[in-house]
Design goal:
It contains one helix and three strands; from the N terminus they run E-E-H-E. The chain is of the alpha+beta class. The chain has one domain. It has a three-stranded antiparallel sheet, covered by helices on one side. A hairpin with a 6-residue loop joins strand 1 and strand 2. The two termini are 15 Å apart. The mean pLDDT is 88.
Length: 85
């Protein structure tokens, strides 16, 4: 069995930040969540004049969203769930 972990990413080089957002067992739900989070982050990025002053909770798909001049991107990766240690 696998789990699909949604990650957020912003910045580049030394100021690059990456964080986990949510995880799903269902890959289709994961893809849908990533799409919605990316769409919302782009809306915020396009409307926001000062990208470093985005209020917490602005993105309902990621209340802890961080953003830099590169915007914010979401992706996911899949890892197996271990059944024993």
């Amino acid at each position: 069995m696998n789990i699909h972990i949604v990650m957020g990413k912003t910045g580049e080089y030394d100021d690059r930040r990456q964080w986990s957002v949510i995880a799903y067992f269902d890959e289709a739900k994961t893809k849908e969540y990533v799409s919605k989070a990316n769409r919302r982050a782009k809306e915020i990025f396009d409307k926001q004049g000062n990208i470093f002053a985005i209020p917490s909770g602005q993105n309902e798909f990621d209340p802890n969203m961080k953003m830099s001049y590169t915007g914010t991107n979401y992706f996911y990766y899949t890892v197996p769930i271990a059944d024993k240690i």
